What does this fold into?
Amino acid sequence: IPSIILENLPTFNSAFHFEERLRSLETSFSEYRQTNPFADAVSAIPGIVQQFMTQQMTEAIRETVQIQIDRLQDSLQRENDEFLRNIDENMKKIIKGQVKNQVKEQVSRILPRIEESVNATLEAEMEGNKSIQRSDEQQNLYKALVEAYDADKAILDTYGDSTILKRRREDDDQEGPSAGSNRGSKRQKEGGEHASASTPSEKATEGAGRSTTGSQSRQMSASESALAEEPVQTTCQIEETPHPVFEKGADDQPIVQTSKHPEWFS
It folds into this structure.
């Protein structure tokens, strides 16, 4: 077969126009895709799925993170509260210990002063009570001495010196001249003792008792002599010494002072 004939023979492409048809189909499909909404929707599905997954993951992550944050906050809050409570308790213990020590120190300083003040107050009250009791005793003693003095003065005013002279004569007759001289010296000695600035409280008390006894005896003798209409003899001699007056001294002891009215005994 000549080559010219072979060249002019129709081929598969030229017979069926395959390439042209393929290009036509591609063009038609492309146009169809551009005009079909379903294809657009199908092509949009991957993007939508991706966006949804992104949102879901973000939300899930956010929730997970929030839960963890809440747990951490609660744990931190508990730890913080526990820490603050421990600090508060420790501070209270420290302050309590310091206050206790300070109170002990203050009490140890103030307590001796309080004890001294209380003791001084008690001693003052006891001394005051003793002074009151002593003052009462001194007043009673003074009253007894004044009563004795008044009784002796009444006897002297009533019967004069005859009573003393008669008593002295009888004593001289009974005891003799020597006893009389001794008694005179004894009177002088006793007068000197009473004229001194101060005497012990016991001697003053004994002298008051003797004076009281003597005054009672003289009153009884005066009553008997008044009934018998005879001169009365006293049981003890009335000494011409100032009447003692008792006052309270600084040491709460009786102090004997001379009377400001010696003319009562004249």
In short: The two ends are 213 Å apart (CA to CA). Helices lie at 3-8, 12-16, 18-35, 37-159, 162-194, 201-228. The longest strand covers residues 245-248.
